[in-house]
Amino acid sequence: MEQLPKRFLSFELLKSGKRVGVKRLHPQGFHNDNMIVMFEHGAFDNAFSRLYDEGMSLIEKTAAYIDGDGKIASRNLSGEASSLYAAEAMRMSTRLMQVASWLLLFRAAREKEMTKDQIAQEKAKVCLNTPSLIDENPNWKELPEEFKHLVELSLRIEERVRHMDRDVESALNHDENGLNPVNKQINMIKAAFQHN
User: What Pfam family does this protein match (any one) (predicted)?
Assistant: First the structure.
């Protein structure tokens, strides 16, 4: 493989079928230039599709647990643990509804089902920072293991969505400011061919 500029490395690794983690690309997450290149070449679509599928699957799994095994397990809890379970189940449901809202909005944007203004208006209503009592309440250890695992998964998926949201915003702002060197080159080539 020929030597590629660093910002193309992420796309080439993804294209070659190798699994690339965020930490391999950049210790603090994706660098703006990497995100733009991935965004333009469709690699970002794969990451979003995976996140969408995992998010929706977690929502279904959580709803089934809370309505089934979770309801049964919560009956055996002490009064304080039962109150914590109810409060944390509500927080987790809210968290996952916010994640679902973001995922559906991003999908609508990607498929051009809504205008930019409609998306911005709806996105302003989405909160990707719901609290949890996971480390604060001494009764946490009494809660059912499966429930605690679902809470942890919901917090992780919320963090992944929050990270993707920041990266998308950063890439789009970078692009709107005309700082994207790839688009600049593409536009120059298009302009050259239009004059001939």
Answer: DUF1465
- Using CA atoms, how far apart are residues 92 and 130, in angstroms rounded to an integer? 8
Q: Are 83 and 186 in contact (CB under 8 A)?
A: no
Ranked by mean pLDDT, the top range of 18-22, 23-27, 112-116, 142-146 is: 142-146
Give 170-173's long-range contacts (Cβ < 8 A, gap of 24+): 170/32, 170/35, 171/32, 171/35, 171/36, 171/39
CB 165 within 8 A of CB 107: no
Q: Report pLDDT for 177.
A: 54
Q: What CATH fold (topology level) applies to the domain 22-195?
A: Helicase, Ruva Protein; domain 3 (1.10.8)
Residue 112 pLDDT: 86
Confidence tier at 123 by pLDDT (50, 70, 90): confident
Q: pLDDT averaged over the chain?
A: 76
